[in-house]
Amino acid sequence: MSETQSISNELQQELIDSCDDPDKFRVVLSKLTARDLKPIYDTLYQFVLSESQNAQTVVTRFDLQVGTLAVSAYQQKAKCKEPLGYCTLSMCVRINPTCGTQRLIMLLSDLRPFLYRLLLERPELRSLPKSPEIEVMTYEPISEVQPEREEVKLIETKPPEQVVQKAEIASEMIDKVFRSKNNLWQMVDKEGFEHALVVTEWGDIIESASTKPINLKPIAQALSNEIQSLNLQGKTLSLNRLRVITKEYRNAVVGMYSLGENLYLLGISSAVLPGKLHSIISKSGQRMRSDLA
After folding, report:
1. What is the pLDDT of residue 63?
2. d(C-alpha 39, C-alpha 250), whole Å
3. Which band of pLDDT confidence, cut at 50, 70 and 90, is reported for residue 152?
4. pTM
5. What's the pLDDT tens digit per position in 85-121?
6. Three-state SS annotation for the chain
7. CB crowding 218-230: b at 16 or more within 10 Å, else e
């Protein structure tokens, strides 16, 4: 099945028809890849939750959670290297599809009894379309034959004045960052980051390392605005300033670590899982912070 195609209603019907037999259900699932299985699971999960509200047996998120193997137990079984209790399917679908497929088939197998009971109580749902066709996840660039879309450009914006007033970074500190640049290249060469950079809170790049030539200024500016916003939140909640944060997007993970003196270590990777990236950005940040002291 092509990644750009939709999963057919026939396949959805096949899953519904086989849900009374665990073995047949797994046979249908075995035909699909992790990228196909993820939207199927999301759709069936929501289908059971919503449609059961009008059935004799109402299913809640708690019910589905209790009926599923605990994340930490699965990680131990799969010998996952991520921290216990942390499992991200959106990244594993691309980075470790074998484990992602295994996890999704397990989740769907756990969901099957809820689906089966729902269809027993509401048999009319068996022959009706359960949802719009599921769009299979794709990570390929948009084809040139697609309708033209307005180009999206990163716009450099000035941070709100109430967040923090811009201050000069001492030349001595800049020299220390330069001497500590090997830490950035280690993140890129050995740890799987595409980009690693040290920026000021206002988006000025002090040093950087990257796997390919790219204009990092828009990235630094966008992330600096994020940092200032987070610092403002911390101040409002009396939690002090940002220390470290990891943000997971569909195609990459971003880590930010405070080096002190209004400097931040930023790391971006599409290959490192969030839990590991959080650990790396923290260790690298602590090492650099020590170098800058």
Report:
1. 84
2. 14
3. very low
4. 0.49
5. 556 666 666 677 788 888 888 888 889 999 999 999 9
6. CCCCCEECHHHHHHHHHCCCCHHHHHHHHCCCCHHHHHHHHHHHHHHHHHHHHHCCCCCCHHHHHHCCCCHHHHHHHHCCCCCCCCCCHHHHHHHCHHHHHHHHHHHHHHHHHHHHHHHHHCHHHHHCCCCCCEECCCCCCCCCCCCCCCCCCCCCCCCCCCCCCCCCCCHHHHHHHHHCCHHHHHHHHCCCCCEEEEEECCCCEEEEEECCCCCCHHHHHHHHHHHHHHHHHHHHCCCCCCCEEEEECCCCEEEEEEEECCEEEEEEECCCCHHHHHHHHHHHHHHHHHHHC
7. ebbbbbbbbbbeb
